[in-house]
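Hi R.,

As promised, here are both runs. First protein below:
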Amino acid sequence: MAKSASRITSSAIEKRTVRTPLRRKNAELRTREYLTDDEVQRLTQAAKANRHGHRDATIILVAYRHGFRASELTDLRWDQIEFTSASLHVRRVKQGTPSTHPILGDELRALRRLRREQEPKSPFVFTSERGTPFTTAGFARMVERAGIEAKLGFKAHPHMLRHACGYALANKGHDTRALQAYLGHKNIQHTVRYTELSPTRFKDFWRR
């Protein structure tokens, strides 16, 4: 009798399989994976209305200007920023190539103010009220909320800012190799996507 019960229990356990729902592809959720410059500006303005508006607007600006991944951005430290020379030492993940980027005036002023007002002080640039480093999940939630407030019409996520950087620079006519170095791509095939969709690629097609 005990053996029979054991077989029934074992059979029941084997048949209890849990099927996780398949994640829909990004292409099914939105028509594109990047933001335009105008949408980035709207996102930044929406973030300024947050409780920590200056921090949130600055984190979006820095992510966009330097094509940061979320993990690279949340790990950004003050010792990577040289205020005197207005330069940023970029460290990349995924075996990406490190580089040094210039910091434009508006970004430099925003970072100076952020460092001046940061309490408690931290070696990390972007922190929470408790002084702990801003998390990638927290960054994602903030971007999503700002996207809703900005009425973008689709769900915004942090990686769209990295893609926005790539497309913006490609639209300005920067060559693929320079763009690859700026974004830290190990494989140039990851960079080609930006130049392939750049409208400047076909700018002379209808000129005589």
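And here is the second one, sequence first, then its structure tokens:
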Amino acid sequence: MLTWLLVALGGAAGAACRFGITWLVEVRSRPTPWGTFVANLAGSFLLGLLGGLGAALPGWVAALLGIGFCGALTTWSTFAHESVRLARTGPGGAARALLIIAATLALGLGAAALGWLLGERL
């Protein structure tokens, strides 16, 4: 029961954090979904860091931060929806969508790997 509560609390905090990031970043960046991009990179780095720390963390931290917080901070569905919406914005929209898709995948994997390496060294 405690694990469910930790995941829920972490998820609530992660979702609120993602909303705040999106609000702060996208006020200036319409129609490109930079807020989701930033949130996904931050979440990838943090989850990589937690993975790199591995057994050094108690299980409840993984539930709270890994599953709950990072799970809600990062979002595949919003990323997919915003990429399709961006592709439909008119001339150049498809190219911008492909660019942000490629950047999210490449930089997200890089952020996770960097976080993991850092976590292993801590």
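A quick note on the second one: The mean pLDDT is 93. Let me know what you think.

Best,
J.
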